[in-house]
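User: Fold this one for me? It's Polymerase/histidinol phosphatase N-terminal domain-containing protein.
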Amino acid sequence: MSGHHHTHADDHGSSLTRRGLLAGAAATGGLIVLGATPGTAQAAKVQVAPGLAAGADRASRITTGTTLVHGDMHNHSLMSDGDGNPDLVFGSMRDAGLDVAALTDHATLFAIEGISRSEWNRAGALADAANVPGTYTALRGFEWSHPLLGHANVWFTNNYVDLGGASSMGRFFTWLTGNGGVAGFNHPGREILRFDNFTFNSGAREQMVSMEIFNRGDDYLFDGWSDTGSSPLVACLNAGWRTGLIGVTDEHGTNWGFQEGLGRAGLWVTGNTRNEVLNAMRARRFFATRVSGFRLDATAGGVRMGGVLGITAGAVQFQVDLDRGAEWVGKPLHIQVLRPDTRAPRVVDVIETTAGSVATFTVPLNVADGNWVVLRVSDPSRPNPSPGPAGHPCNDFGVAYSSPWWLQP
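Assistant: Here's what I get for Polymerase/histidinol phosphatase N-terminal domain-containing protein.
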């Protein structure tokens, strides 16, 4: 799409140069994977890098039994089209104060040479060396990459696939269902065919757990609107997918974890381990933000975000906990209630609130109007750099998105 070509073919020159740099880095640097300890996932406060917000406490004000962890699930290195030594990825993100981190280099994308078998194994070894159960979750993943259909991150598999093994969305979904793990739609709408316009595959529904709503500095609610006139969020959820919403940095440089204002994910876990992170992803118990240290928890009729409401119609009470610590106390925020429509989400209510508070409000919902609902948190004082239709309530600056709820059909 216009303004988002993201061409990387000239980042490193030839593959020989890339692999030569990798070999040299390994010979001189070794496995540099552990950095300063940010604290445990269960701690109320964590150590974070200078310039990033210490942020909110990790305990929700409206639910019990889980703890908030901050993660970045989409990062690159010299093993595909990034600039940095993969040995440094996990240590950098831990030093930055993240609790969950993934290295997701590309599978081969024509002109971009992706990971080899040895590099896939190397990524696994780096993640295993950095992983500290209870404190820091390090994950290996990969980015299946098609130049027209789109890109998809895959986590928690023992194998990877490129276009040689999965050259279409259908073949990718077949591979995914045969190999386990979970996956997500990346920067949706950047590539022109947009996952065959999110054509639904019932067999892959449970494994396609996420859609990136924040990638780098972009808000994909309306990104590309001037070209397509269609919100990726609406297209994805209306097609039948049950994806949570996630934010990522998609880092291709060497500042893994340290950049403010880029996408991040908040996951509500029972413990900071790989298994519990996987459980949270499967439950869609996570939110997207592009603000470090931000806390969002939300329930609808007592059901956590990512869940199914056991109703087809009725007035539903929402509770929303928003916080970013002392520096944001009292900051005006809006909560926008997003419901289905044909091209852009319909905003059925806007609740004025402030950071550091719990908002309680009731919204009438009816499955006849569509089976999903999403909460968008915005800063009304700033414009959306990727606006949608003129006058739309979401043309202000997006701060965070809840994962959806689904009404029982």
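One thing worth pointing out: DSSP finds eight helices and 20 strands in the chain.
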